[in-house]
Every structure is written in C-alpha cells, then in structure tokens.
Amino acid sequence: MSADNPDSTVNLNEQKAREQLIDLAADFYDQFARGDIPEMTLPTRTKSNIVFDEDSGVWVYGDRTSTRSANSVRGARKLLKAAYTVEFLANQLDENRSSTLRELYYLSESWDSEEAQFSTQDESNQLVEDLEIVSSVTREDFHMRPEESGAKLMGPLLLREQTRRGDREIHCQEDVGQGGYQIPNNPDTIEFLDHDIDFVMCVETGGMRDRLVENGFDTDYDCMVVHLGGQPARATRRIIKRLHDELDRPVVVFCDGDPWSYRIFGSVAYGSIKSAHLSEYLATPEARYVGIRPQDIVDYDLPTDPLSDSDVNALESELDDPRFQTDFWEEQIELQLDIEKKAEQQALAAQGLDFVTDTYLPERLGEMGVI
Predict the structure, then answer these.
(1) Which of the residues 48, 208, 279, 285 could staple to 271 if both were Cys, CB 3.0 to 4.6 A apart?
(2) The domain defined by 6-145 carries CATH number 1.10.150.170
(3) 259-270 helix and 309-319 helix, angle to the nearest 10 degrees
(4) Can you give the pLDDT at residue 165?
C-alpha cells in the first residue's frame, strides 16, 4: 500500500509546476532588463549525450548542452513560442483545466502573434518536453495530456482513483470487464489500497494480453498483466515503476522477438532518449526480459519472418546501444543476426493456444526465479 496521499502529492506538484513556469518567465524578463540577448540552455538530446547513472541505474542526459538564443531569427521564434506556451500553461493551472498535446497545437492558431504559432504538432510536443527539462516538472503537472494510449491493467489489485464525482475504489479483476482497468493519464492520482500481486508482467501486444487473460494467467499466478500497447506511453511506464517500487514486486517484460520490441523493453527498463530527463520517474531498471528471445526461435522452431534490412541495421545499432551492452543481449542479438529471423509472440500458438500459459511462461519464469 502506498504511504503517500496522492491528493496532497499531486497538489504540491502542481504548485511547483506553476512556480517553475513563473520563474522561467521571470528569467526571460531579467535577461531583457539586463540588456542581454535572451536564451535558454538545454541538454543536448542525442544518443551521444546519454550516460548511465550508477546511482539510479538508468540512462540520463550527460553534460553536453545546447542553447536556444534570440541572436538569430530562428532562435528568437523558438523563445517567443516558449513564452506564449509558458503563459498558456500558467493560466491553465490557475483555472484548474487541462488540455491535450494535440489541442495545444491547434490552440496556438488563436495566439495574437503568428510567429508564436506552431507549424507542426511535433514542434509543440518538443517545446513541452523542453519546458519539462528546464523546469524539472512533468507535463502531467502542467495538466497536459497525450492522446489516449488505451493501455490497461488486469490483476489482483485494489486501488482508489479520483473521478469527477469523487474518489472510487476499483479492483482490477473483480470490478472490470475483460478489457481491464484503463491507466489514467497521471497514475500518481491513483492510490494502491491492497493487492495479492506476486509479479508484474508487461505485455507488448493486445493479442497476447488477451490470450493471458482468457487463459486465466493473472488469476492462476497472481500476476498483474500490464498491456504496453506497443511503445509504452509515459503513464504506462510510470505505473509499472510505481507497482515495482511501492509494492516491491518483480517486473518482467514479454515482447515480440525483433529489434523494435527489444527497444520497447529498453524504454521500460532504462528509459529512452526522448524522455531521458524523466528516467528516474519512468524507468524500472530492475525489469527483466522474458521473451521472445532469438534462442526461442531455435529451441521451439517457431514460425518466423526474415529480417529486413532495417531490422539488421537496428540490431547492429543495438550492439552499440549502452542499454544492450550486456552478455545476454550481445549473445541474443548476435544469434539473431546469424539466423536472420524474427518471430512474434503469437508464434507460440503454433504449439497450441495454451502453450504460452501452460508451458512457455511457467518454465521461463521458473528459470528466472520469479515463480
């Protein structure tokens, strides 16, 4: 059970968010007052500037920085857009309202300066991430929401969530349908009340998630099944971390056997370049990879597809990726390059619909000491 009161924690975070936004605007003003050319300094957001933090066990930005300066027309436009966005976010917090990243992009069309309007949603998304970095506050505390991720939970967990009609308690097996409990945009508003969870299993695909639930894997093994929905949203990664840290339960990740799925595991365990400033908030470095492994393709003679050129390039890139520089990953990636094959989770169905829950996962989890 969580020792913190989610309501008080969220309120403090929102107060900090507004203070940080005001401080950022004041910094711009002070630079103008001194006669300085306004600028904003950020970490360089490239793979070459990602370093491993020994204390937290996750990948974070290094010491290299980039400066957004108004000494060029392009730089001035970026800072103008930042100023308008800061004002919008501060007003949004004052009014206790929220908006989506997509809405911010369209809202800029109404701003009185055409130069402050965003040309693409990628541009507005990037700016919100920049403001997270310089303010050390998450976009959730700015009341910014992504589009719906659809990721869900199914398992023996009783929680309390905030709703427009007050708090309500939900059991993530008994009070939900086959679809499960949908993860909210800000999982820090959820309070864990009670549970019978032995371990947390993160599943990449909806098809495999449905197979596990239909076969009763969550009840048979007291497992919390978390649907990742492909590359997991921040809310999904955040609740995985909370389940691990607050309930002290092991986390395992079950993905397809291809390089893109290995990166999904990497984002859960170690963070990603895009959100390296939030790795300690989102990443679960203790997470372990269950499969599909290239060795499984060989051992179980799984149905496969040939590696494409982009697959090969991605695998070779992962050999240089610090998140995969372990004996296990180097051995598996080298094997996959050798056999030139990849396989999906559902390929296990070639052995029968119950094989994954009756044989594959129990044996693998037993070997790992999880069950």
Answers:
(1) 279
(2) no
(3) 40
(4) 73
